[in-house]
């Protein structure tokens, strides 16, 4: 009888104690050397947030990668984008993704290679069940590397909540292993006068200022403000994303961002939150990022309607609590601004379905694709000899959350084969990007996820393949080709030795297609026939055949 109170006490206190230790010590280090980061969670990248932590690997590939906890390998992947990858589902409710690995450990390495030969594809996706590959904390699971879209050896490690699928910051689990005494630094602030509603220093377009300001900032009407800032850590020269940004006006907090979780669906909303590396301190109506919070009725926008000084303060904080504060003043001063024409057919509303019909063009934008209302700066460029008109839907590209359907009419059918036509997006520098597309009844149709400048082009040119130092292949046991595809994209490739498939890897950073010769399968010191064919998005095929000693 006298033990019962103790049991009750344990029952009540253990869960609390457990949940606290869970955050400070739930995971062990993935490496057996000191941890340094080259990238943090939620850093701003083009079109997405950085979804994990980048750990430095002392400048080399081939470091032993250890499981950070107790669980099992739930996915084994080889992809062009992330190279060799592992998903490990841990018993504590999280799943880790390890990317850019140089290799898998024995039972998995053979299984992956077998899969490549079986499917005759470099890319592999295997979903083992929970009993096949159990892992323990500190057990080696792979080798770190530099495969896929990676610009130097490092480990990218994502952590997501298994149940919700949300990417979360893994740094709270490793804070005690990584030193950080440096606070974030503000680079510049940007003002966003609202179209037809506000003005800053006599101008209605976005303007940047550095702090402290040399000239007074005078504004009137509805404006937004944003900040460009980076964080820093001890013992590295890298810069990182800022964990917390808070904006107050006259000591009232109106906006706060805490970069700690996002879903795949939210990832693209970075386009709405940021503009030219500045993080807006207001939310456009189509922006549903949960990491952002506003505390006024205007979603963080500010109405300057009194002739007085408004005191703005940015507070930037990292996960360790290192804090920096940046005050500045905005003076309220009446200034005129243009009256917008909301009836203009190029005025698109974010919460409506929008359709544009121009000579030779049709565009359907589903409801909820745009993050905000927009007045397009639309122009059609005529060139009588061209395949189609060139349509500037807007002078500056406007990213959308979901795809719209774009149809452009062919005016001059310069090539009979209709599979060669594609819609190209024209960049400001004159560079074009293929969006693919399908020819049908005089139109080419493609899906677009931004409003920019579009036209039709044809691709009748085959991808070019060039061998790189073939005389060294027998020593390095590495067959290397460089591929050049100027117009569209490479969509398929296949390599063989003596007529039999071998798994060539496509290194997307360098555009090389590489096979590391397997000595068990390919006899050394004798002549072999190596063949590689590469196909682009318009079905043009390039091919190379060589007799070489391997
Ligand atoms: Zn990364």
From TrEMBL:
Documented EC number(s): 3.4.24.-
SUPFAM superfamilies: Duplicated hybrid motif
Keywords per UniProt: Hydrolase
Any one Gene Ontology molecular-function term assigned to this protein's record: metalloendopeptidase activity
Record-linked CDD domains: M23_peptidase (cd12797)
Keyword Ubl conjugation appears in the UniProt entry: no
Family annotation (InterPro entries): Cell_wall_metabolism_enzyme (IPR050570), Dup_hybrid_motif (IPR011055)
Protein name in UniProt: Murein DD-endopeptidase MepM
Organism: termite gut metagenome
Lineage of source species: unclassified sequences, metagenomes, organismal metagenomes
């Amino acid at each position: 009888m006298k033990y019962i109170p103790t049991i009750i006490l344990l029952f009540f206190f253990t869960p609390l104690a457990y949940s606290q230790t869970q955050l400070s010590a739930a995971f062990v280090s993935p490496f057996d050397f000191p941890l340094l980061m080259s990238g943090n969670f939620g850093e701003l990248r083009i079109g997405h947030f950085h979804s994990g932590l980048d750990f430095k690997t002392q400048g080399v590939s081939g470091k032993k990668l250890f499981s950070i906890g107790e669980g099992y390998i739930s996915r084994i992947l080889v992809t062009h984008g992330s190279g060799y990858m592992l998903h490990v589902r841990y018993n504590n409710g999280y799943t880790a993704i390890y990317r850019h690995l140089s290799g898998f450990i024995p039972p998995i390495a053979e299984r992956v290679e077998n899969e490549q030969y079986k499917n005759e594809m470099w890319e592999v996706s295997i979903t083992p069940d929970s009993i096949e590959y159990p892992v323990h904390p500190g057990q080696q699971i792979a080798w770190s590397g530099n495969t896929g879209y990676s610009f130097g050896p490092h480990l990218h490690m994502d952590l997501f909540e298994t149940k919700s699928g949300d990417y979360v910051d893994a740094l709270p689990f490793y804070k005690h292993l990584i030193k950080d005494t440096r606070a974030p630094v503000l680079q510049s602030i940007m003002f966003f006068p609202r179209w037809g509603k506000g003005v800053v220093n006599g101008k209605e377009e976005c303007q940047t200022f550095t702090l402290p300001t040399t000239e007074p900032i005078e504004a009137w009407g509805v404006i937004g403000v944003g900040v460009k800032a980076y964080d820093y850590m001890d013992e590295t020269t890298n810069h990182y994303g800022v964990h917390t940004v808070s904006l107050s006006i006259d000591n009232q907090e109106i906006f706060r961002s805490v970069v700690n979780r996002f879903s795949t669906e939210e990832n693209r909303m970075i386009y709405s939150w940021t503009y030219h590396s500045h993080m807006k301190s207001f939310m456009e109506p189509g922006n549903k990022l949960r990491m952002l919070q506003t505390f006024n009725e205007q979603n963080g926008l500010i109405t300057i309607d009194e002739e007085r000084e408004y005191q703005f303060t940015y507070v930037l904080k990292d996960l360790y609590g290192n804090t920096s504060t940046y005050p500045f003043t905005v003076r309220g001063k009446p200034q005129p601004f243009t009256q917008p024409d909301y009836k203009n057919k190029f005025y698109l509303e974010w919460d409506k379905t929008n359709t544009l019909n121009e000579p030779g063009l049709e565009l359907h934008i589903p409801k909820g694709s745009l993050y905000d209302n927009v007045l397009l700066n639309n122009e059609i460029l005529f060139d009588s000899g061209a395949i189609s008109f060139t349509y500037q839907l807007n002078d500056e590209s406007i990213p959308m959350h979901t795809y719209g359907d774009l149809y452009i009419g062919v005016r001059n059918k310069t090539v009979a084969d209709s599979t060669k036509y594609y819609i190209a997006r024209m960049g400001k520098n004159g560079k074009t990007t293929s969006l693919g597309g399908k020819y049908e009844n005089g139109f080419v149709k493609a899906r677009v996820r931004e409003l920019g400048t579009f036209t039709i082009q044809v691709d009748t040119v085959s991808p070019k393949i060039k061998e790189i130092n073939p005389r060294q292949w027998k020593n390095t046991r590495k067959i290397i080709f460089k591929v050049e595809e100027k117009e569209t994209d490479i969509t398929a490739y296949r390599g063989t030795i003596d007529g039999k498939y071998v798994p060539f890897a496509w290194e997307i950073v360098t555009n090389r297609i590489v096979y590391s010769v397997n000595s068990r399968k390919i006899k050394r010191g004798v002549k072999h026939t190596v063949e590689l064919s590469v196909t682009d998005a318009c079905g043009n095929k390039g091919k190379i055949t060589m007799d070489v000693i391997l």
